[in-house]
Amino acid sequence: MAGLDSDIQFLPGVGPKRAALLKRELEIGTFSDLIHLYPFRYIDRSSIQRIADIRPDLAYVQVMGRVVKAEIIAKKRLSVIIADSSGEMEVVFFKGLKWNAERMVPGNVFLFFGKPTVFNGKINIVHPEVDAPPQTPQGSMTGVLTGVYTSTEKLKNSGITGKVMNRLQSAALAACLPEIKETLPEYVLKEKGLVPIRFALQNIHFPKDQDTLAKASYRLKFEELFLLQLSLLKQKYIRSRAENGLMMPKVGKDFNDCFNALPYELTGAQKRVIKEIRSDMMSGRQMNRLLQGDVGSGKTMVAILSALIAIGNGYQSCIMAPTEVLAQQHYANVQKYLRPTGVKCALLTGTTGTKERREIHSGLEDGSIGLIIGTHALIEDDVIFRSLGLAIIDEQHRFGVEQRSKLWSKSAATGPDGKEVPPHVLVMTATPIPRTLAMTLYGDLDVSVIDEMPPGRKPVQTLQIGQGKRPELFNFMKREIAKGRQVFVVYPLIFESEKMDLKNLETGYEEIAAAFPMPQYKVAIVHGQQTPEVKKFNMDAFVAGRAQILVSTTVIEVGVDVPNASVMVIESAERFGLSQLHQLRGRVGRGADQSYCILVKDLKMSKESKKRIDLLCTTEDGFELAEEDMKMRGPGDLEGTQQSGLPISLNIASLAKDGTLLGEARAYAEKILKADPTLSDPVNKSLADEMKKDRYYFKDYSKIS
Fold first, then answer.
1. Position 87 confidence tier, pLDDT thresholds 50, 70, 90
2. For 297, which DSSP code?
3. Using an 8 Å Cβ cutoff, are 571 and 466 in contact?
4. d(CA 243, CA 284)
5. How far is 127 from 96, CA to CA, in rounded Å?
6. What are phi and psi of 148, to 5 degrees?
7. Residue 519: is its pLDDT beyond 60?
8. Torsion-angle region of residue 634: left (phi > 0), alpha (psi -120 to 50) or beta?
9. Helix (H), strand (E), coil (C) string for 368-392
10. Does 57 or 259 have the greater pLDDT score?
């Protein structure tokens, strides 16, 4: 008998060719993989509509019609007129013309199922599914909900249609259901009112009705989120018990000298976060803390003061940034604040010269450099620290897991017992992460949030305009420049794309250069395809005020700090996600002047895009925007998580839609671990077994994120 781990090619109806395609397109390699591919929606095939009642806004319809006429037009399409007692309509086929024409004999009756559309003012269905009519009278039809599965063009073209996928699922369940073991303890099923696993799997694929579907869906979603949180919290518990952190009991002179010389008062939120960080560093356990703070909330200051705590205790600190521009900017800021202290700081990037690089390597090894700021260059093999005590990672989603683990393993610091001890880790992000996503991505980290902006910052005024308002926009830019201000203009593309009719960087730059001629105006241009030297030269010209306008792609999204810039113009704003638009807007409003973010939108916009742009114009709260963004786009795109990967792939639960259930699952996981932290109680054996599976092993995730 075939088992859960059997190769998918041995499932009847698959074979080697289809197996290779399923593996490539959907990552389905075994019977188990197929069974855990759940439908993303369901179609009710139990009802039949009258032709007269069909509207184009209906998602799917099913009609029982008699063929009146069928003809192939221009050898390209088969037009079939069907009728019932209420009226007539057309169904159209573009493929399988000969085969479909042979069976569409006038007088024959079929069930036609598909999406109604309008063509030439009349409703039709293109490529409907066609079935023989039911053998029973319509009133007693017992049709079920039919699952619709993720698919691709290649799968459909190779004959793996929705119908075929349903047949394959049925065969896989028939082969494997008896051997599927319950994954949750009996008491969990009772306390949470969950149906058994076999019932859930059968009814998620082939639900008898809406009620059984709801029960199956709730069971599988709860289990997925609960096991995820159980794993993350178990790791956190194990780590919190391990006394393997560097003890940093002192604050130190450098911290006090820097703090007392600050030209402004820290916000209450900054003070609270520094206390949380200090408490971690004194605890004797390794700190793993995520610091979230909206653009301009003062995370860099918190990073500097945290680094000075480590330095005051005899350790080194490093700040790793994703881009050279951001690393240079951090370096300039840090240098300014370190003046009252005796701390030596250095900058290490890909463009650091050989001689300077050698000096920096030497300073890190002998400990004379207390704080190093850099890019990926910090994780190169020849960079060795004397005693790295704190690693600060900025905008960490831009680094892969492997890169972060390399930094983490560079510590040569030793604890009281002489053993090598990992540095404390502080991860910073300016991208507000929705609570549900933070609980999943960083479920085993402690999270600090700077939820207060420094006093005196005026809200950025956000406006939306159409393409036709360009002359007024240019006049407004000229008025702002005349006041001594600077302007960002951001485009979604670099070069002309035939697929997207967008204002792009090349033509936009030419248009702006013509409207803002030299010598009165200087326009700089920055994009990802320039060499680092050219990019740096142009960016420096803008930062230093030699250019009044910076035309760029989204390379300036993270961290570029130009207090004199008061206008952010975003071309084709509908092409950007909410979080990205918010990040770009955060580049202005850093000085005392009133700042503006102007969203230039195209004529044709989807409802989603309009909603995004309207929302951005009504709120500056990054967390509110992030929650909305995730609801609209799903969690995969947010915060670059596709790049670093969610720690687990969710098969059925949605972080965007199941936030309440996630909170419930987490609280329940906490309750179980409080009673049985190591899951060694016999009643929790099935949970302990689940935790051993690869699915719940996150490579060094707790230590490096």
1. very high
2. S
3. no
4. 6
5. 10
6. -115, 125
7. yes
8. left
9. CCCEEEECHHHHCCCCCCCCEEEEE
10. 259
Classify strands 461-466 and 596-601 as parallel, antiparallel or unpaired. Answer: parallel
Q: What is the CA radius of gyration of the chain?
A: 30
Specify which residues 93 forms β-bridges with.
78
pLDDT digits (tens, 9 = 90+) for 187-231: 999 999 999 999 999 999 999 888 999 999 999 999 999 998 898
Between CA 669 and CA 468 the distance in angstroms is 56
Contact criterion met (CB below 8 Å) for 619 and 483: no
594 CB-side CA count, 13 A: 4
| Confidence tier at 695 by pLDDT (50, 70, 90) | low
Closest CA relative to residue 526, chosen from 553, 548, 502, 492: 553
Closest CA to 450 of 294, 657, 634, 621: 294
Q: What proportions of the chain, in percent to the nearest 5, are helix, strand and coil?
A: 45, 20, 40
The pLDDT of residue 45 is above 80: no
Q: Which residue has the higher pLDDT, 565 or 153?
A: 565
Going by pLDDT thresholds of 50, 70 and 90, the confidence category of residue 144 is low
CA dihedral 321, 627, 270, 422 (to 10 degrees): -50
Helix (H) or strand (E) holding 347: strand 345-348
How far apart CA 196 and CA 319 sit, in angstroms, is 49
Give the span between the Cα atoms of 448 and 699, in whole angstroms.
23
Of 350, 465, 434, nearest in space to 656 by CA: 434
Amino acid at 300: T
CA proximity to 589, closest of 360, 294, 178: 294
CB atoms within 10 A of CB 217: 18
Give the amino acid at 166: N
Please, where are the H alpha helices in 242-298? 253-260, 268-282
Residue 598 contacts residue 566 (beta carbons within 8 Å): no
Closest C-alpha among 234, 185, 224, 235 to residue 695: 224
**Tens-place pLDDT, residues 616-642:** 888 877 777 776 776 666 554 443 333
Q: What is the pTM of this model?
A: 0.60
Closest CA to 546 of 570, 519, 571, 566: 519
Amino acid at site 94: F
